[in-house]
Design brief:
By secondary structure, the protein is an alpha/beta fold. It has 2 domains: about 300 residues, Aldolase class I (TIM Barrel); about 25 residues. It is about 40% helix and about 15% strand. It is built from 13 helices and 12 strands. Helix 2 packs across helix 3, helix 4 runs parallel beside helix 5 and helix 7 packs across helix 8. It starts with 6 loop residues before the first strand and ends in an 8-residue tail after the last helix. Its cofactor is FMN. Keywords: Flavoprotein, FMN, Pyrimidine biosynthesis. One of its GO terms (biological process) is 'de novo' pyrimidine nucleobase biosynthetic process. One of its GO terms (cellular component) is cytoplasm.
C-alpha cells in the first residue's frame, strides 16, 4: 500500500482512508482478510444493539432502570434479527478479529439509552477494539420535551461512554438534526470523530397485514454521494472534528470528492456487497492516480486543496441554476427556445 495514502482518523493511524462500514459482511474471517488485503484502513464490525447490552448488564448483576426493563421486555421482537446472539459472543468476535487482523478493528454499538454502555464499552476495549463507533438511534420524539432535550441526552450519554474508555469514540449521526455543525462543536468534549451519516431503513406499511415494515437496500452503483454539502459545512464550522463520510461512496471519484469535502476517511459498505472486497483496491488505485496527476505526495497535500465551503453567493447561484435547468428540461412549452 503506497505510503502516500497513510492517514489519521480520530487518533487511529490508518494505511488508507477507506474504512469498511458496519455490516454482517465483517462477521466472516475470510471476508475480513480479503478486505485487509484489498487495502482497507480499518474494519467496523456489525452493530450490537442496546437491548443486547441491557441483557448483558442484567446477566452480569447490574440493576436495570424501569426504562431498560421495558426495552429488554420488548427484545423478543428483535432478537431473531441479531447478527451476534449476545454480548459475550460479540466480545469474542472483537477479540478474535483484533487478534487476526493487522488493521484496526472498530466495535459498533447501536442506541444510546442503555445505562450499561460504560461497562460494556470498557469490555470492548479489553477485548481488543481499537475504537468504538456509537450509532446514535434515539427513540420517539414523544418521550422528550424538545429537540434540545434529545440532543442534550445524547451528548451526556456520549460523554459518559467516552469517560469509560481510552480508545477513540466515534459518533455516527443521522441527517435529521437541526444543525450538525453546531453538534460537532459540542461533541468535541466527548468524541474523537463523527460519522456522517448513518443510513436508516425506510419505514413502510404492509397493506396485506396492516403492519409496519422496514426496508433496507444497498445503494446502487449509479447513485451519488449525498453528504458533500454537510461534510463541507461541518468541516468548515468545526475543522477540529475528524470526519468519516458514510453513504453512497461507491467508486474512486466518490472517495476523492468526500476527502476534498472534509472527510478524513470514507466508510464503504454497499460497493463491497455489489462488487466484493476488490472494489477497495480499485478505489485506492483511482485515488493514487488522482494524487499523482495533481502532484500530491501525501493525504495532507490533498487536504490543503479542499474548497471547504461555497460562499453564500456562489451556493445561491448554483442552487437557482439547478432548479431552473430542471424546470426547462421538464417544461414542454420551452421546447425550441
Amino acid at each position: 500500500m503506497p505510503s502516500r495514502l497513510n492517514t489519521q482518523f480520530g487518533g487511529l493511524s490508518l494505511r488508507s482512508p477507506v474504512v469498511v462500514g458496519a455490516s454482517p459482511l465483517s462477521m466472516n474471517e475470510r471476508t475480513r482478510m480479503e478486505m485487509q488485503e484489498a487495502g482497507a484502513g480499518a474494519i467496523v464490525l456489525p452493530s450490537l444493539f442496546e437491548e443486547q447490552v441491557i441483557d448483558w448488564s442484567w446477566n452480569h448483576g447490574r440493576q436495570l432502570t424501569p426504562k431498560e426493563r421495558m426495552i429488554l421486555g420488548q427484545s423478543d421482537r428483535t432478537k431473531h434479527h441479531w447478527v451476534c446472539p449476545d454480548g459475550d459472543s460479540y466480545l469474542a468476535l472483537v477479540n478474535r478479529a483484533s487478534s487476526l487482523q493487522d488493521i484496526p478493528i472498530i466495535a459498533s454499538l447501536n442506541g444510546y439509552t442503555a445505562g450499561g454502555w460504560m461497562d460494556f464499552a470498557g469490555e470492548l476495549e479489553e477485548a481488543g477494539a481499537s475504537a468504538i463507533e456509537l450509532n446514535v438511534h434515539h427513540s420517539g420524539a414523544r418521550e422528550y420535551g424538545s429537540s434540545a432535550e434529545i440532543e442534550m441526552t445524547i451528548l451526556d450519554s456520549i460523554r459518559d461512554v467516552n469517560s469509560a474508555i481510552t480508545v477513540p469514540l466515534f459518533v455516527k449521526l443521522s441527517s435529521n438534526f437541526t444543525s450538525l455543525p453546531h453538534i460537532a462543536r459540542q461533541l468535541l468534549s466527548g468524541a474523537q470523530g463523527m460519522v456522517l451519516h448513518g443510513r436508516a431503513p425506510k419505514v413502510d406499511i404492509c397493506l396485506d397485514t396492516l403492519r409496519l415494515a422496514s426496508r433496507w437496500r444497498i445503494t446502487s452503483a449509479d447513485e451519488g454521494v449525498d453528504s458533500l454539502d454537510t461534510l463541507m459545512q461541518v468541516h468548515s464550522c468545526c475543522p477540529a472534528m475528524p470526519l468519516a463520510a458514510c453513504g453512497g461512496v461507491g467508486n474512486a471519484d466518490h472517495l476523492i470528492k468526500v476527502l476534498l469535502a472534509g472527510a478524513d476517511v470514507a466508510m464503504v459498505t454497499s460497493a463491497i456487497y455489489r462488487e466484493g472486497a476488490s472494489v477497495i483496491q480499485t478505489m485506492l488505485r483511482g485515488l493514487v492516480s488522482f494524487m499523482e496527476k495533481h502532484d500530491m505526495q501525501s493525504m495532507q497535500d490533498l487536504k490543503t486543496q479542499r474548497p471547504l465551503e461555497f460562499s453564500s453567493d456562489e451556493e445561491r447561484t448554483a442552487y437557482i441554476a439547478a432548479l431552473t435547468a430542471h424546470l426547462r428540461e421538464n417544461d414542454p412549452s420551452s421546447a425550441g427556445t
